[in-house]
Amino acid sequence: MEFIPNLLTLAGMHLLMAMLPGPNTVVVSWLSATVSRGDGLLAAGGVVLASLAWVVLSLFGVGTLLLQAGELYAALRLIGAGYLLYVGAKMLRAGLRAPAAAGGTSARPALASRSPFAAGLLTTLSNPKSAVFWTSAFLVAVPPHAPAWLYLAIVAVIAAQSALWYGAVALLLSTDVARRSYLRVARWLDLVAGGVMVALGLRLAEEVRREIALRAAS
Question: Which residue of 37, 107, 117, 141 has the fewest C-beta atoms within 10 A of its own C-beta?
């Protein structure tokens, strides 16, 4: 019972981060509402797997290595920014095209090689800041003498919470009511979702630009 508070702290931090609007939520929501429940759930599965990858890598100290290898960390974030801009551009293009027919959404574009799972996976993997976040969280919430079972429990809890949250988003946004509502304002929601993704990509690229400029000036 000694380490239960540590586990609950990390679980709470993760749940709050997952619930904040971000690229993962946008991709799962957009695919669920525009394509199908199955595509939304597949995207959620990709998000869950990539989230676990960042958590496990953080446990092995990858977040610290990324911070120490400044050029590599900057390059990875620029790649991530490029991917977010790519996804956002596809959403914006969907919003600027003629609205989908009333009877369906077959004209909606795929986001990543026609694979919703890849869309969720790549969206989450495009953010190496996740490794740095989890490294910091582990340093704060997990004591050095923590037993192995605590680390296994952390991975299990994060997997369960990610699956429940993004799965719930996919199920909710793919209901008939949600999809009918979406079709009424499809163009505007596509533009909003695309704008959010583009803004996130630009913000990430700007962060890297500032860091490079500061290093060059020092």
Answer: 107
